[in-house]
Every structure is written in C-alpha cells, then in structure tokens.
Amino acid sequence: MCNTYNLRGNMKQLALFANAEPPPDVEINYESIHPDYVAPVIRRSPGASQLEITMMRWGFPSLPGRREFMTNARSLSMSLWRPWLGVEHRCLVPATSFAEWTPEPNPVTGKKETVWFGLNSNRSPYMFAGLWREWTGTRGTKKAPVEGTHLLFTFLTTEPNNNVKPVHSKSMPVILRNIEEWNAWLTLPIEEAKEMQKPLPDDAIEIVARGTKGD
Question: CA 203 to CA 163: how far, in whole Å?
Fold first, then answer.
C-alpha cells in the first residue's frame, strides 16, 4: 500500500506538463505527501473538456469502525468504489516517486528503511490513475480540524512488478506515463479503463533513493 509519494517542481511546471489550467494563487511544497495532505489533482473541468488542476485531500472516508483513510483502491468491484468509477469521477494524480518500507529492518540500524521508486534518476513526472469525490465532514488534525465540504482523492493499486515486489509484495500504484494513457483513463468506459489496472514493466521503474525519509 502506497501511503507516501513526492511531486517535485511547482504549479507552473505541472500545468505545462499536463496541459492543464492551474488553480489561482496556490503554491505548496509537494515533498513527502502523506494521507490527509492537500495535493494537486488533475481532472476534466465540470461541463468542459479542458483539464484543470484542483487541490484535493488524499484519502476517501474511512470504513465504519476504522480510522485509516482509503488512500488506495484495489478491488474496483467492491460496492465502495462503484459510485466513483464513471468518467466524471476519474482523475490523474501527478507524482515523481512513491515510497514503501522495507519488509525487514536494516541489520545495522535495527530500523526499517524507506525505498523510493521512480521512472528514472531524473525523477521524470508521471500520473497515478485516480478517483475523486466530494465529502462533507471534518478532516485535518485534532489541533487543526477542517470542517465543511472537501474534495477527496484516492488512486488505484495493482500487483507489484518484480522490481517492487522484494520491497512490497502486495501492491504498487497504477502508473500512467504518457498523454495517451492519461486520456484513456479519463474517457474510456470503465470496463475498458479497468484494463489499465496493471503493473508497469519491470524495466520501466527503478529505485531512486533508499534509507531516507525524503526522496
């Protein structure tokens, strides 16, 4: 389960990369994005074909009796996800790397390490295949609660490829690398779009940092 990712760069660079309209007067530090953080998400403008960058909070509401936000979507056949699978609720989540913990502690430090995966050493940007929704309630921390209506996002995961599996044997994010894949995720009927829920080829991703909290 991916619960940390990075997005290097700034809003202007992101808008140029995605050919999307940026939000006005918004600029944040994207390093080490965690659940419940607010981050840029790309969707089609309601009622228009143009892409726009919208700030959303990471994590769908938790399941009854659980505290964890639903940051990743794996089994799209679950009733939990069905209302949000239409093209009007699909989105792209830009990133440059994602992190997983090593399964075993480092024998020297006695602590698990953070392993960051990216397309290459240059941290070329890509997109997670995502879903978004509105939700009314309280998010944020106990010290700084944020009440009201929120835009929330999650992104798809799938089985890991052979580069990710030694670090995280259960899953990896669904990564889209080019404009054809982005448009397909945002426009195809869901039965076709679900075919995109698959791991990257082994040679398409590599470890770009290891042993540190940040990439």
Answer: 8
